[in-house]
């Protein structure tokens, strides 16, 4: 039955976003559809010269309670929900004077926008739509007979369908639009539930609701045989989700993950900073007088691993930095912005992906971190803690000096973004050795030392870069072996 073509004899249009409304309604009217509408939508249609019947005229009941009650009426929902091929439903329509409604175009009060804009609680409550979701769900449930449209972007598809089928809509399109409609109301309810959970002070919610629109499909996931897509919050943190890709090939799953890791890291650092990330771990991080200075110092930590990596900086890109980055094969560069000269330099490397995010994420903003496991999801607060001098407890006979404390807090900031067991040697505001993701903390210490040695030899240096360096780790040290290994490296 849902594959049948259905004519549009009457259309109910009640939208918050009036983009394209007049043109869409005009196309329906030209096909002979009678238009029914509410308040602001009805005014917009009349101003466009279209004949429209207000819902209040249809129901005989005025809008009331400031517009809270207007479409919740049997003459409306009966007209939407009636099964046109069922004798009992048709008899009920005839008995109660219910006219069929064949198309419902509704988009919802802008609750998500109100929350994202920092509206007060009363305003947020008032932008919770009640009648809209009811209309959408009624029409989507009865998609065998009714066409439902929840996004102005879908108006064109309906108009094209009417043109192809002489004023009728096919079952395939009705079903597709119904699926989108249920996804929209689910996302809307999820946003409301998340907001209410955020108002509570009792910890994590008893039921987690997550709904994110798909931003883009990806060629594959972590491996070529895995499907993948990128979904984003309706109000995302600045970063990969807000970034504009100015050039380069399509981002891959791994590109997005690594770029996010790099950008979150540099956002933690107040001075001009650069991070180079490969396979989710930094292979070099530094602060400097300029972004170019920071980048060169970050690259010096492990230039071998940096090949084909992700570069993130926390200042706008300029031409000098762009030229330096282009000296080495780089997959992705992300920054808050890039000036015209920098863009021109990068344009010569057409495969390099250049992203501008518009802003830096707030490292201390509250958010939830999710990780999937078999049959469920682990949820925790995102790690928003920053280690500062006041957090350090000195247990040695010699207290560290001011420069050593600065290096230590820098190293701890980087270690937060290195997979455990993490070891970070830092000196002068730059990493000199990183040991990431080792099963043994001692192996992580030795790996960091080995990498520092390799980089020094490649640069023609005779001394040890780890001499006098500060060391930070997220590892638990039940024995002295890891500490002894760090001390033997000159830390």
Keywords:
single chain; 491 residues; 20 strands; alpha/beta; five-stranded parallel sheet; six-stranded mixed sheet
Task: Kindly summarize this structure in a few lines.
The chain is α/β, with parallel strands linked by helices and 491 residues long. The protein is 38% helix and 18% strand.
Helix content: 25-40%
Number of helices: 18
**What's the mean pLDDT score?**
91
Q: Which runs of at least 5 residues are low in confidence (pLDDT < 50)?
A: none
Shape type: elongated
Instruction: Determine the structural class based on helices, strands and strand pairing.
Output: alpha/beta
N- and C-termini, Cα separation: 76 Å
* Strand adjacency order, main sheet: 10-15-14-13-11-12
- Record field, number of beta strands: 20
Radius of gyration: 30 Å
Strand content: 15-25%
Q: Biggest β-sheet: count, sense, barrel?
A: 6 strands, mixed
Describe this structure in words.
- It is a single chain.
- The protein is α/β, with parallel strands linked by helices and 491 residues long.
- The chain is built from 18 helices and 20 strands.
- The chain has helices at residues 21-30, 39-47, 55-59, 74-81, 87-96, 111-116, 121-126, 131-141, 155-164, 171-199, 253-267, 291-301, 303-306, 319-325, 340-347, 402-415, 441-458, 481-488, and strands at 6-7, 10-15, 34-37, 53-54, 103-107, 147-149, 168-169, 214-218, 228-231, 244-247, 273-278, 281-287, 309-313, 330-335, 353-356, 368-373, 376-381, 423-426, 431-435, 470-473.
- The protein has a six-stranded mixed β-sheet, sandwiched between helices. A five-stranded parallel β-sheet has the order 4-3-2-5-6, with helices on both faces. A three-stranded antiparallel β-sheet has the order 19-18-20, with helices on both faces.
- Helix 2 links the parallel strand 3 and strand 4 (53-54).
- Helix 8 runs antiparallel to helix 10 (171-199) and helix 12 packs parallel to helix 14 (319-325).
């Amino acid at each position: 039955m849902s594959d049948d073509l259905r004519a549009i004899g009457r259309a109910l249009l009640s939208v918050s976003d009036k983009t394209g409304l007049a043109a869409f309604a005009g196309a329906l009217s030209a096909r002979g559809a009678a238009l029914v509408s509410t308040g602001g939508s009805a005014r917009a249609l009349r101003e466009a010269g279209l004949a429209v019947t207000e819902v209040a005229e249809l129901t005989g009941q005025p809008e009331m309670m400031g517009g809270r009650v207007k479409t919740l009426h049997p003459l409306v929902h009966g007209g939407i929900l009636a099964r046109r091929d069922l004798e009992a439903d048709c008899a009920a329509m005839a008995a109660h004077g219910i006219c069929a409604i064949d198309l419902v175009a509704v988009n919802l009060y802008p609750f998500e926008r109100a929350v994202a804009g920092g509206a007060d609680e009363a305003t947020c409550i008032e932008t919770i739509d009640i009648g809209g979701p009811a209309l959408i769900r009624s029409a989507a449930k009865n998609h065998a007979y009714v066409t439902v449209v929840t996004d102005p972007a879908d108006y064109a598809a309906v108009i094209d369908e009417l043109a192809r089928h002489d004023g009728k809509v096919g079952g395939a399109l009705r079903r597709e639009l119904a699926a989108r409609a249920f996804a929209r109301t689910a996302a809307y309810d999820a946003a409301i539930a998340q907001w209410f959970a955020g108002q509570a002070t009792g910890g994590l919610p008893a039921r987690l609701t997550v709904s994110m629109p798909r931003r883009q499909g990806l060629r594959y996931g972590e491996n070529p045989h895995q499907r993948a897509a990128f979904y984003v919050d309706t109000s995302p943190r600045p970063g990969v989700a807000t970034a504009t890709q100015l050039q380069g090939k399509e981002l891959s799953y791994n590109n997005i993950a690594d770029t996010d890791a790099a950008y979150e890291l540099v956002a933690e650092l107040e001075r001009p900073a650069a991070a180079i990330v490969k396979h989710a771990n930094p292979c070099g991080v530094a602060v400097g007088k300029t972004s170019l200075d920071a980048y060169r110092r970050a690259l010096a930590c492990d230039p071998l691993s940096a090949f084909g990596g992700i570069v993130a900086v926390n200042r706008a890109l300029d031409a000098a930095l762009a030229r330096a980055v282009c000296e080495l094969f780089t997959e992705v560069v992300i920054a808050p912005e890039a000036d015209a000269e920098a863009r021109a330099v990068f344009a010569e490397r057409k495969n390099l992906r250049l992203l501008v995010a518009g802003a830096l994420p707030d490292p201390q903003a509250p958010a939830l971190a999710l990780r999937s496991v078999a049959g469920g999801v682990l949820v925790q607060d995102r790690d928003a803690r920053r280690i500062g001098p006041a957090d350090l407890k000195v247990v040695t006979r010699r207290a560290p000096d001011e420069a050593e404390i600065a290096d230590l807090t820098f190293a701890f900031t980087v270690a937060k973004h290195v997979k455990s067991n993490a070891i970070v040697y830092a000196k002068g505001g730059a990493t000199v050795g990183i040991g990431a993701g080792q099963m043994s903390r001692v192996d992580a210490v030795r790996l960091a030392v080995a990498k520092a040695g390799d980089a020094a030899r490649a640069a023609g240096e005779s001394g040890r870069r780890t001499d006098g360096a500060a060391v930070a780790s997220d590892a638990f040290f039940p024995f002295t072996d890891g500490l002894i290994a760090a001390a033997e490296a000159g830390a």
